[in-house]
Amino acid sequence: MESMYSIIMIVAMVAIFYFLLIRPENKRKKQANEMRNSLAVGDEITTIGGVVGTICAVKENSIVVETGADRVRMELMKWAVSSKGVQTTEDGKGETTADDKKSKKK
User: Fold this and answer.
1) How far apart are the C-alpha atoms of 62 and 80, rounded to whole Å?
2) Distance between CA 71 and CA 30 in Å, rounded?
3) Helix (H) or strand (E) holding 23
């Protein structure tokens, strides 16, 4: 009887870890992959290194980004894209997208 109770507790712990840790992380990874696969020319992005720019070309595994007024172009891997839009705060909660900017101008 005691061994049955301990087995049930172990199964319950595994279920708790799955629903609280593993499943949300898999959802975040899936959303990030979808965002990276939906990148298009003209989108403004922020990379994981903090580089902000506009996409000029999209290739299978990489993108070409134009940064700043000096129009420097860099080729980056898609996995290096952190978010669409310009990230204004360190935690990413103040993120603005191109759609937000268009609505503010109107």
Assistant:
1) 9
2) 32
3) helix 23-37
3-state secondary structure of 16: helix
The answer to whether 81 and 39 are in contact (CB under 8 A) is yes
Q: Which two tokens stand for residue 68?
A: 């700043």
pLDDT over threshold 50, residue 103: no
pLDDT band at 68 (very low <50, low <70, confident <90, very high): confident
pTM (whole model) above 0.70: no
Q: What is the end-to-end Cα distance of the chain in Å, rounded?
A: 69
CA proximity to 76, closest of 57, 90, 92, 95? 57
Between CA 58 and CA 64 the distance in angstroms is 6
